[in-house]
Amino acid sequence: MIWFAYLEMGKTITVAAPGAASMVFAEKTMNEIRQMSPLQQSQVMCDLANHADTPICRTYGTWSANIKLGFWYQLGQWMEDGSVAPIPKGYELSANASAVLDGIKKLESGQQITVLRNCVVDMGYDPKKLGDYNRISEPVVPPQNIAERTKVSIEGVTNATVLNYMDNLNANDFDVLIELFTPDGALQPPFQRPIVGKEAVYRFFREECQNLKLIPERGVVEPADDGFTQIKVTGKVQTPWFGAGVGMNMAWRFLLTPDNKIFFVAIDLLASPKELLNFARG
Fold first, then answer.
1. DSSP of the chain, one letter per residue?
2. Taking the chain, what is the end-to-end CA distance rounded to the nearest angstrom?
3. Are 155 and 235 in contact (CB under 8 A)?
4. Which of 8, 17, 177, 260 has a CA between 20 and 30 Å from the CA of residue 226?
5. Cβ 53 vs Cβ 122: under 8 Å
6. Structural domains in the chain?
7. Across 11-15, 17-21, 233-237, which has the greatest mean pLDDT?
């Protein structure tokens, strides 16, 4: 499935920008695979898809999402040039896989890469079974200089916490950003379970959210029980994997405490500008 998706990249699926992930962390494993026999290479890919307990699957499980995505992008290139065992000649996708790929082709560019990303993130050995391990991710870039930062504006929203969330995330200023959350605050990324607690949310920001560009557009503020405030914001997000030309339609659902701290924020990937508009009205 990943191989056929790679073949579509540049046609109907948005090309993931080469070099967006620091592939130096995967270099040893990739060279190990490249030196294997074709049969061994195919077995490694099957092992990754089947969550097998092998040294390579364990290593893969420690990587951040961006490194995993870059790993498969590089494997796709090597399969195409013959460095790594390609899909057997004449091989055809199953009817179910073909339907999935056709569905991906019809998605907007931002959603295409998100679907593929979610496919590769769940491969390899389950890191929850590894016990204590070192998470491998790209080096954390320094926050943007204050003088170089630009502030967002959101139609219908003047709440300082929400505006600061957007501004600090855009500036890679995760140390300041995390202080907007309560100690037991939570964040729910698209298609994932909530990440609970400041330490876990902080780690997520550092590993998954570097060099994002959030472009919020409009929002709605609503009262909630016990003095809490709900704020829904819609807009776009640009990532290093797409470049500046492609933005994903996103929605943020904030739940703020009476003292204006983030107790919970859910991030949703929306299908289209129409859905984005409907979400804002809902």
1. -HHHHHHHBTTTBPPPPTTSS-GGGTHHHHHHHHTS-HHHHHHHHHHHHTT--SHHHHHHHTB-HHHHHHHHHHHHHHHHHTSSPPPPTT----HHHHHHHHHHHHS-HHHHHHHHHHHHHT-SS-GGGS-S-PPB-PPPPPPPPGGG-----BBTB--HHHHHHHHHHHTT-HHHHGGGEEEEEEEE-TTSPPEESHHHHHHHHHHH-TT-EEEEEEEEEEE-GGG-EEEEEEEEEE-TTT-TT--EEEEEEEEE-TTS-EEEEEEEE-SSHHHHHHHHH-
2. 36
3. no
4. 177
5. no
6. 2-129 (1.10.2090.10), 146-281 (3.10.450.50)
7. 233-237
Q: Tell me, what's the pLDDT at 96?
A: 73
The confidence score (pLDDT) of residue 205 equals: 93
Q: Sign of torsion, CA 139 128 253 185?
A: negative
Query: What is the amino acid identity at position 227?
Result: G
Kindly tell me the burial class for residue 205, based on how many C-beta atoms sit within 10 Å of its own C-beta (0-12, 13-18, 19 or more): buried
pLDDT value at 19 more than 80:
no
Residues 6+ away with beta carbon under 8 Å from 88: none
The top-scoring range by mean pLDDT among 35-39, 80-84, 104-108 is 35-39
pLDDT digits (tens, 9 = 90+) for 198-213: 999 999 999 888 888 9
Rounded Cα distance, 127 and 135, in Å: 9
Q: Which residue has the tokens 């298609």?
A: 191
Backbone angles phi, psi at 232, to 5 degrees: -110, 130
Q: Give Cα separations from 250 to 77, 264, 268 (angstroms).
A: 30, 16, 6
